[in-house]
Amino acid sequence: MAGRGLTRRELLAAFLGAPFALAACGQREAAPPLPEGEVVGASDGIGHLIRDGLRPEPETWERAGVVIVGGGVAGLAAAWRFLHAGFEDFVLLELEAAPGGTARSGEEHGVVPYPWGAHYLPAPMKENRALVTLLDELGVLEGSDAAGEPVVAEQFICRDPEERVYYRGRWYEGLYLHAGANDEDARQLQLFNAEVDRWAAWRDKQGRRAFAIPVSLCSDDAEVTALDRLSMGEWMRARGFTSERLRWLVDYGCRDDYGLGVEQASAWAGLFYFASRMKAPGAESQPLITWPEGNGRLVRHLYEKARSHVRLGLAVADVRTVVDESRRVGTPAAGGVEVVAVGRDGRGALGFRAEHVVFAAPQFLTKYLLKSYREGACPSHVAEFEYGAWMVANLFLSARPRAGLGFPAAWDNVLYESPSLGYVTATHQRGLERGPTVFTYYYPLTEPNPRDARARLLSAGRDEWAEVALSDLQRAHRDIRTLTRRLDVMRWGHAMIRPRVGFQWGGARVKARQPFGPVHFAHTDLSGVPLFEEAFDHGLRAAEEILAARGLPSETMR
Question: Is 540 helix (H, G, I), strand (E, B) or coil?
């Protein structure tokens, strides 16, 4: 296992590959000292205490109509929906000192804010009504076009150049590596694009698209769901897609959105990545909306709306439904639910008595937090949810690296021969072309077994991950070490749901979405694909379920 105590060569071989490690460690110049920095975020200590049985009994109880468990995008979306309905009898509990989950951002050390996770949002199509409403509320839209599609204000669309890829000493435009491609590569790329176009045009008898955002708008027709039963790699081979460049592009897409390789992600997920963002066959993918802090800008807006209802630094340790003793033990009754929370140090237990709960946390936490699940009623579908591990590093640079050969600096900068996803530049959207900047570097751990991925993630500390990031980026930016004045690391042990083969349409998602008495579930994992739009959609759905249950029905925003 890679981690502390390894030589630099062993560390780089474990995370960047043996050939790269040999080349990097064979260089004569000694590497300068690592820049200062720390591991930030993700309070896993209290989480492990709760996992291991911390169940305090509070001395103080408060009352709330609804308790929202979790301040990620789904929890914040539920709060936003309640407020739109004029319902304010709720409280949102969030473990971390800042809300947002994997969409959170930072601003402590940079010249601009910067992301710690999700960093863009494809412009929504008109069918995604709630998201259009949110973006309009943010001032991102400039009305709609003749077809009723929302028009995004230019300053929020990712500036050109948007992306480039580094290959053997040179930068190239875009993500598909045209350099060195032969006629067969070109033929296969054309055929692949034709397949994507076919799926973008596909409609079922109800007029539903095969792939749409949010997933709740997708067709469940057998022709579509059959794609979930084989890997994207198998799907490609069956159609003769053997081009190395095409395979790399598709594998990059799967790693980028899912933290899975092309042989792990289902063909449904692989095609979703390409087809769901297209309005029509032959059309370009929807333009990307972004800010320096990425989706942290959306989080900030949602949080500002609900701030008076949010309690930060409180970890939910127990959720117990009120039980009618005349019924089967563990069966939720209409009497409500009790929620117990503790501070991040495991002390100061506080109780909440409510009529309903929005459980806006990942499904894997239900077996620890829901008392009925802990005591034998945990349904089998919970075990079907698997989560990928990611490392994100923010590098704070005193100046820009020297310009390399080829295509100029872009927003998204990808290294073709690296297991990482490269980096995005936080200052790009502001048009700051010189001076200090922030590079956000992403590294998904794609082991087939998610436990192995988490173990490898946590086996390396801040210094080890800093060495990996700097060594990886040094292949494209020889001066990256001397320019990096600080490097912080975020280790996401359960970063995102993994749409492996058989999960998307295997039934677990549908079962997990059903309320458990007064507990209503809302999280991006219920869609099988880890996107802002999915978390937002499930937060709205759960809130609307509760509004209806409380006799406060309102027209759906979804």
Answer: helix
Q: Token match 């402590």: residue?
A: 108
One fold for both 52-104+295-378+503-549 and 183-286? no
Q: How many residues does the chain have?
A: 558
The share of the chain scoring above pLDDT 70, in percent, equals 96
Residue of 89, 149, 67 whose CA lies nearest to 542: 67
Write out the two tokens for 507. Answer: 């039934």
pLDDT for position 219: 98
> Are the CB atoms for 401 and 413 separated by under 8 Å?
no
In terms of Cα–Cα distance, which of 174, 224, 64 is closest to 407? Answer: 174
What class is the 183-286 domain? Answer: mainly alpha
Architecture of domain 52-104+295-378+503-549: 3-Layer(bba) Sandwich (3.50)
- DSSP symbols for 168-228: TTEEEESSS--TT--HHHHHHHHHHHHHHHHHHH-B-TT--BSS-SSGGGS---HHHHGGG
Beta-carbon contacts of 261 under 8 Å, excluding residues fewer than 6 positions away, are 233, 251, 254, 255, 446
pLDDT in tens, 285-304: 999 999 999 999 999 999 99
Across residues 514-536, what is the average pLDDT?
A: 97
Among 22-31, 145-154, 251-260, 454-463, the range scoring the smallest mean pLDDT is 22-31
Q: CA–CA separation, 237 vs 225, rounded Å?
A: 19
Q: What is the CA radius of gyration of the chain?
A: 24
Q: pLDDT confidence of 376, banded at 50, 70, 90?
A: confident
Residue with tokens 């890997």: 231
Q: Classify 391 as helix, strand or coil.
A: strand
What's the pLDDT score for residue 87?
97
What's the pLDDT tens digit per position in 222-236?
999 999 999 999 999
CA dist., res. 105 & res. 119, Å (int): 9
Q: What are phi and psi for residue 128, nearest 5 degrees?
A: -85, 70
Q: In the chain, where are the structural domains located?
A: 8-30+387-497, 52-104+295-378+503-549, 183-286
**What's the confidence (pLDDT) of residue 109?**
93
Q: For residue 156, give every residue at least 6 positions away whose Cβ sits within 8 Å of its Cβ, in sequence order, or none.
A: 140, 289, 290, 291
* Segments of 43-192 assigned E as strands: 60-63, 66-69, 90-94, 105-106, 114-115, 121-122, 141-144, 150-152, 163-167, 170-173
- Rounded Cα–Cα distance for residues 201 and 124 (Å): 17
Q: Rounded to 10 degrees, what is the CA torsion of 131, 132, 138, 140? A: 130
Round to whole Å and give the CA distance between 394 and 467.
13
Those residues whose C-beta lies under 8 Å from the C-beta of residue 321, and which sit 6 or more positions away, are 332, 333, 335, 336, 337, 371, 372, 516, 517, 518, 519
Per residue in 428-469, pLDDT tens? 999 999 999 999 999 999 999 999 999 999 999 999 999 999
- Going from the C-alpha of 497 to that of each of 250, 257, 345, 493, the distances in angstroms are 19, 10, 28, 11
Give the three-class secondary structure for 399.
coil
Q: How confident is the model over 174-187, as a mean pLDDT?
A: 97
Q: Residue 375, class by beta-carbon neighbours within 10 Å (0-12 exposed, 13-18 middle, 19+ buried)?
A: exposed
